[in-house]
Write a structure and sequence with these properties.
Blueprint: H1 2-10, H2 13-29, H3 36-58, H4 67-87, H5 109-133, H6 142-154, H7 164-187
Helix pairs in contact: 1-3, 2-3, 2-6, 4-5, 5-7, 6-7
Amino acid sequence: MLTCIALLATQSIGAFLSLALSVVIFLYSRKKKPAKKIILLILCGLILSGFILFFLRNNSLYIFNTPIFSLGNRLSYWREAINVISHHPLAGVGLGNYPFFKSISPHNSYLQIWAEIGILGLISFAGLSFRTLATQKETQYNALWIGSLAFLIHNLVDFTFFQPQVSLLWWVVAALLTSTVAIKKAEL
């Protein structure tokens, strides 16, 4: 509940949807499935929070703060990133050399990684991400796993991976999650 209140305060639709999708994926990936009432309650709360968030953003005094404006610009950024990728698919344009169109980033970290360091860089990052999410889901690591997945999903519509103060937290979470796998293997 506190997380939903914090997300409502930021009014970030992408962050809200990322967290909601992560929770749903987590609940369905568990061996012991939760009761349908719990899932329904969570989904109702998420849908209600989503409507409130959309209403708050849609009634903004500033056009740049509306969801339609944001979505339109992101689609434009993604087209430009795909254009850069089509010209440099293997090696990219080099780290930090993403060309400025209307924004410093395509608002999609995966497209930016591919555009800057090529397909091998994208495959490497995807492999690292999957390795982080392939951990044993023990009770004490559930929140870390959900947070890591939410971060990775959110980077489909934003560029928080390229903000050091944000991505540092993900690297710490990734280290904690992958260290549990190493410890489990060492115990065997």
